[in-house]
Amino acid sequence: MSATTEAAAPQKPQTPSRAQQVLREILESSTLVVIMAIVASMLIGAILIAFADEEVRAASAYFFSRPGDTLSAIWEAVSGAYTAMFQGAIYNSNVDSFAGQIKPFTQTLTQATPLIFAGLGLGIGFRAGMFNIGAQGQIIIGATLGGWVGFAWHLPVGLHLLVAIIGCALGGAIWGFIPGILKAKTGAHEVIVTIMLNYVALNLLSYLLSLEAFQREGQDNPISPTVDTNAQYPLLLGDQFPLHWGFVLALACAGGVWWLMERSTLGFEFRAVGANPRAARTAGMNVAKGTVLVMVVAGALAGLAGSAQVLGTEKNLTLDVAGSIGFDAITVALLGRSRPLGTVMAAILFGGLKASGPTLQVQAGLPVDIVFVIQATIVLFIAAPPLVRSIFRLPAPAHEKEVAA
Amino acid sequence: MKTTIRVGALAAVSALALAACASAPEDETSESATSGTSESAAPAESVDYMACMVSDAGGFDDKSFNQSAYEGLERAVDELGITKAQAESTSDSDYGPNLEAQVAAGCDLIITVGFLLSQATVESALANPDVSYAIIDDLADNDFDGTTDAPNIKPITFETDEAAFLAGYAAASATGTGTVGTFGGMDIPSVTIFMDGYNAGVEYFNEQNDGDVSVLGMDSFSGNFDDQPAGKNLAQGQLDQGADIIMPVAGPVGLGAASAIQAAGDSWLIGVDSDWTATAPEYSDIVFTSVLKNIANSVYDTIDATITDGFSAEPYVGTLENEGVGVADFAEGTVSDDVLAELDEISAGIIAGDIEASGAAE
């Protein structure tokens, strides 16, 4: 309501003063919306934390006899939780050494790495009109192939890592090619095909891990041998930090995807196919080829997300190697508006939320489910700018359409 | 719309207000003075010791080993007066960060649950030699040299086959159809060790008594630990093939099997991990016995021993002898006194090493 009346304001004949214009630009910026979204979600999160806290519940039973108890318990619970979140994801002031202080942020970037890869891949698909739900399966197959190269082959330094990374990308690309070619040739809908391929991938991995060739010597547990040191991403900042070179590769991929989508002919075709396949066909583009290529590129990037797991953080293959990355990456891509820079930022936000999970549990004593709820609330608010604008009575931007797209 | 919200808000506020009318507790000093004289089970004194636990992706409510381990930790908090911190993992990537957060929080002893955490535990233990670690169902031996990879890890494992052997023998003596069954959640050692012991117990019964009892489902797995319908189907299949006693080694999937067995009537279930007459009381009328794996006790004992005698990396192996594993009471009227006497003998034989509970024993 108020947003629309405010939006109509600039159309009035009198010219706004320069100061007003600057203010308006700030208010319209999506950065402010993101900040306000975080504020809003922290408020909601605070209520949830207060409810989840045992001491608050105990003290609220006698709220009217001694309200101070409840209020101080709420303050302690909420401030404790947000301190823990900050210390877990960005900067830990409890530690003396500088390395220990900034370690949480490197942890955040490490957790963000696979999300950047997979989010980029999904973003390409979304912009090309393909709703690819199959990142999970593509990550699994990528990690399986690359991981196998990592532990079963023994190659010299440098070469081994390169081959293992290519293995990951190839595995993901194959798993992306299948729904791509099925859609192009038979019209099978990619949503259904990719969802089903997720199951196929998971059960295939489950089968492989039951084979001797994929198990550790002298053990029957479904866990692969550790990949060779030669095939692991080297650590970026030394032994103290978990951050590995996969992060740099992810940033490079983000640059590559930007170039692909914004500057290359192929990217233009991808976008044209997504915007209007019929028009693209009329313009002489090969829509089938575009569909397959989009899925192959998206799959390869998801496969690289698998490499961040199997060659970076986990260093071995288990059934849970993909975690929930394939699905989190969908949110990351949507949150980042399918643009490379947005995806990177969204992935770092998500990585931070993930990295703060352990401290929230251990330091603040919150149950893991509440941690998830808080994370989901933050995403919800950021993903819905109009909601945030109406809560804080911010004016809608003049070019609403572009932001919402 | 707005009125609805207002009415709702008013209702919520009044509910809260009504709930908040209790009287405030007495001052804390008098509170603790009274509790000191009362006979409540509150800890006598609190100890400056922090025990922590990291679950695998199953979480602490998995109705299986994570949950048992966590119960042991909670008991230690109640009875020994220690403090605890726990972290549930939701995926493999959480293990390392969870361990790190616990080290940072100042945990004295960190207990990790399951073989999936093996690598992360070893890495954390090597990086933090001052912190003590224990790992459940794993030997923390990832280079296969037969010793634990870090000097500050205590492996906690169980010879569950010894107890399953007794259950198998008893089942073979009690079956009316000459067929018993079993199935597992996944083909992993901590599951198959139950099945191997059970099978060996049945075979031993056949050997001793010229019996011909067969075991179904030694290669049956539900594929996971949460698909109850799959458990129901597997159990139904075995019931259809004539089995009248079934041991599902699959955590909550076994509840699906229990419902099939209850519906079939005239057949029995063997519970695993904990005593199912207590944990699944709705099925207590069909529980033949339970093969106990006392993870909770081992966790409690480890914490207790560490506080009193200091940390020892000596591996803990739960056996019949130290009651780390065992069988629960048999359902009334199913096992004759003669067989009970034989079971006592067999149990003594296993402890003495005269009887091999299963070929798979490590």
* Total number of strands of chain A: 0
Tally of structural domains of chain B: 2
Identify the quaternary structure here.
heterodimer
Structural class estimated from helices and strands of chain A? mainly alpha
Distance between the termini of chain B: 68 Å
Q: Cα distance, first to last residue of chain A?
A: 21 Å
Reading off the top of the CATH hierarchy, the class of the largest domain in chain A is best stated as Mainly Alpha
**Arithmetic mean pLDDT of chain A:** 86
Q: Give average pLDDT of chain B, whole number.
A: 85
Please bin the fraction of helical residues of chain B.
40-55%
Q: Per the principal axes of the C-alpha atoms, what is the gross shape of chain B?
A: globular
**What is the succession of H and E elements of chain B?**
HHEHEHEHEEHEHEHEHEHEHEEH
* The CATH topology of the largest domain in chain A: ABC transporter involved in vitamin B12 uptake, BtuC
The CATH topology of the largest domain in chain B is Rossmann fold
> How much helical structure, as a percent, in the residues of chain A?
over 70%
CATH superfamily of the largest domain in chain B: Response regulator
CATH-derived architecture of the largest domain in chain B:
3-Layer(aba) Sandwich
Number of domains of chain A: 2
Model regions low in confidence, pLDDT < 50 over at least 5 residues of chain A = 1-13, 400-405
Text of the CATH class of the largest domain in chain B: Alpha Beta
Order of helices and strands of chain A: HHHHHHHHHHHHHHHHHH
